[in-house]
Amino acid sequence: SYFQTVDLPIVAGRAFTERDSAENPRVCIVNEAFVRRFVHGRSPIGLRLAVRPTAIPDQPAVVHEIVGVARQIKERPDETEELLQIYVPLAQDTPGDVFMMVRSATDSATALAPAVRAAIARIDDDRLISIRSIMTLDGVARQSTGPHRFRAVLVTAFAALALGLAMIGLFGILAYSVQQRVREFGIRRALGATTRDVVGVVVRGASRVVVSGALIGLALSVALGRLLATMLFGVQPLDPVTFALAAVALLVTAVVSSAGPAWRAAHVDPAVALRTE
Fold it and tell me: 231 pLDDT exceeds 80?
């Protein structure tokens, strides 16, 4: 009942039953990628498949009859959509390690673990089964995605650091620019420029710098984005939404960084500015 336990649909044929024992002919279930690659539109049910175990190269291939087709799934985040998957009954190909999946009506894995151990002990009279660990599917998912989440956090941290440095640098450049243009702003105010006019001058200057940097950054991202393809999930290297959000983030950074210098420029006293030089 593996497929029912994990809610994995059988889209053609049947799932495994108790008839698929070691004494009966060997059977298997393939996934949709297998059908697309090898069957080419025909029904795979009833076809015979020779499988050679990869762990034992010298072992001869074993012939299985295909009795069903399972929905395409991913076992790990870095798997491609076209990965071939072949399922065989446990009774016909018992491995050294067995992962048993249990579905419960409760959400507490802690409460479920003793019941699972007790159920195994009731049928393991000789104490031959060693239970190493019990995990929830959420725990398995966190474990399998751990390296990818670590890389994502690392990249995010460096991106945040780069954004912080960019804001500090932009603020410093704008502050220095305002300091150098104090006399100009004083003349503008003396000739009737409003606070809004002076702020607009500073913000437009910051926007030109940021827009130029954003265009250069977008061009480099398009050229180098494919190098990050192996680290991306659910998004393409040339995702327009991501690029648009990055550009918006830079513009917001420009506005925030230019707020202080713009406020200072808008409050320049014309009399004091004209006396300095």
Answer: no
Identify each DSSP E strand in the chain by its residue range: 10-13, 27-31, 48-51, 62-70, 86-87
In order of 27, 68, 187, 262, 273, the CA distances from 190 in angstroms are 91, 85, 5, 17, 10
With beta carbons less than 8 A apart as the criterion, state whether 262 and 219 touch: no
Residue 273: its pLDDT value, please? Answer: 57
Return the closest-CA partner of residue 214 out of 256, 177, 248, 255: 248
In order of 73, 81, 136, 252, the CA distances from 30 in angstroms are 11, 14, 26, 51
Average of per-residue pLDDT values in the chain: 80
Mean pLDDT computed over 248-259: 76
Nearest to 87 by CA among 49, 140, 42: 49
Rounded-to-integer distance, Cα 219 and Cα 215, Å: 6
- Given this model, what pLDDT does residue 30 score? 93
Q: How many helices (H) and strands (E) does the chain have?
A: 8, 5
Question: What sign does the dihedral 77-81-82-87 (CA atoms) show?
Answer: positive
Burial 178-192 (b: 16+ CB within 10 A, else e): beebbeebbebbeee
Give the global pTM: 0.58
Q: What percent of the chain has pLDDT over 70?
A: 87
- Using the structure block, give the residue that is written with the tokens 């491609």: 80
| Tens of pLDDT, residues 42-63 | 889 999 988 876 656 677 888 9
CA angle 214, 220, 222 (to 5 degrees): 100
